[in-house]
Amino acid sequence: MKNEEQSSTSPHPFSFAMPPFDPSRARLPSSFVGIPEEFLLLIGHIIGAWSKFDMSFNRLLEKLLIAAGDVSDRWEMESFKRRSKRLRQACQPRFKDHHAILRSVDQLVADAKSLQTDRNLIAHGHILIKMQTLGVVDNQIQGKLSLYCIGQEGGTRLEREYSLHELELVRYEFAYLCGRMSALVTGENLHHLQFSSADMDALRSFLSEHDDSSPDKHEA
Fold first, then answer.
1. What's the predicted TM-score (pTM) here?
2. How do strand 140-153 and strand 12-13 relate by DSSP bridges?
3. Lesser CB count within 10 Å: N end or C end of the chain?
4. pLDDT tens-place string over residues 53-93
């Protein structure tokens, strides 16, 4: 892994390919985003992944709240911080004898909060491409491209820089987050969460009692 990270940040032949566009469809004046297509693709993956996670998160929270007799929908407009607190509180009495489930939920929330910072910076912050040229080798300009993000969190200014490799790592971390969330709301692939048979039975029993035929049940 260390060698892979070093390779991702070392100088390499410099290129800057802009996304293609059809001049005949562009009204004048037009100005397109000056970010290479490979970065834009990963940005889209990351933004879409948070939406996927958040919908599944809300589905599980809704099941737990309804099971506890809370039929209000006011929580839907709350921040993720407040909703995650509700989820953890709702899980405690329901799964108090299944510590693996509670630990999994706690870890999921902690990971989501960390990744939410990346997502918010990328989706809501100011983003630009940072180019660093490092000379010419064999008649090719060597350099590095990175996505530079500026935003804020809790009133504090944040600045982060992502190489293409680092954006790919964020994408895969989101995929792991979404996979665990999907497992908790569908009852599938629970063996990957290291649940005991009793834990799996308890969660699946709860889900079957509160089956709302959500789209999550039909995920591939």
1. 0.85
2. antiparallel
3. C
4. 999 999 999 999 999 998 888 899 999 999 999 999 999 99
